Amino acid sequence: MMREMSTSYGRSAGGYLWVILEPAAGIALMSIAFGLFLKSPPLGENFALFYATGLLPFVIYTEISGKVSQTIRFSRPLLIYPKVTFIDAVFARFVLNLWAQAIVFCVVMSGIIWFFDLGVSPNFAAVGMSVFLAAFLGLSVGTLNILLFAFVPVWERVWSVINRPMLLISCIFYTYDGLPESIRDIIWFNPIVHVVGLMRHALYSEYGAHYVSPGYVFLCCILLWSFGIYFLRLYHKKIMNEL
Question: Which pLDDT value is given to residue 13?
């Protein structure tokens, strides 16, 4: 775990500080940019809170999935030891990055609520469920990508291209309810839409988020995770030679 921390974030405080400043700066820039053209956000009255409820769960998913995807490539020196399994390496990366992103979430969200003096009463159970689903989805996608990156090398580039529009189709800049029905019927199948909707339901008491289905997201996670782990158990030694 200490090796993961030092290599992922560096040994100085600057590396850890940047992990917090990066999403905070992104939320600030989005708030300023959209505030110039819109009188109010699609939900509530505070731009920073609205974009934080969308961007922070998305960052949890992307950071964890990206780091887990590189597990065997990153941890190959440790995997030569018989007592260290690929599952140990996967969970070490997952736990470290979940811990880091949970701290980022708490610091940034608390900072927004304090700085703007917002009278927010979060539903902590819904907040926790949203963070859990975002992290589990990242773990599941990342685990499957370990397999695909090894056996289908071009998939790493394809995945990078596919992920680029995810920021735009995950209801971060708008609400699901504000879309035409024909578009809602399509993007409902994007699990991140449910994660973001659940987070907004947790921070906005007036937002019902009737479309959110945690069970659907959990099912997606279980299927991806089970498929990835099953084949990694069979082929992890071959993958170590491929990467």
Answer: 47
